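Researcher: Here's a chain I'd like modeled. Treat it as a single chain, no partners, no ligands.
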Amino acid sequence: MNVAQRGWFLAVCFASLAAAQALPNTQVESLAGQKLTIPQAFGGKPVILVWSFSKKAGEATRAWTDPLAKEGLPVWSAAMLEAAPRFVRPMIRSGMRKDTPAKQQERSLLFYQGEKQWRQILKPPKDEDPLVVLLDAQGAVAWSYSGGYTVKALDEVRQHFKGLAK
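Model: Modeled as a single isolated chain. Structure tokens:
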């Protein structure tokens, strides 16, 4: 095995190890006001979770969730709001509720704690981009994609999810 092949092999091994990390049990709130615990809220089934770690990423999340939901795929959104001052959070939540269709509010999750831990698990490359994460039936990260919505990226998400849902 030459140096390039060894490097590629190690990169694949590390990616696999990082991808296999299970999510911690976390109390969250949906935009519909439900108190949920994840990953249990996903019912032991693979899901697509579109994360935002910034306002800009949050504004781009619906570009992902709308087409995935339209296809009937189990898509959820997750907004990390720990860094937002507590007195501002109700305003953020209210604005998000107004911008999110009622059907999707139950699947829109608000995280108010654990940002450092989530960043270690998910490793978002850029805060300003949505992070599309595929979770397996055990609630472990199986695959992720960071970036804005494109048809090519959507096809990639579909293909990876299809492999999980078998």
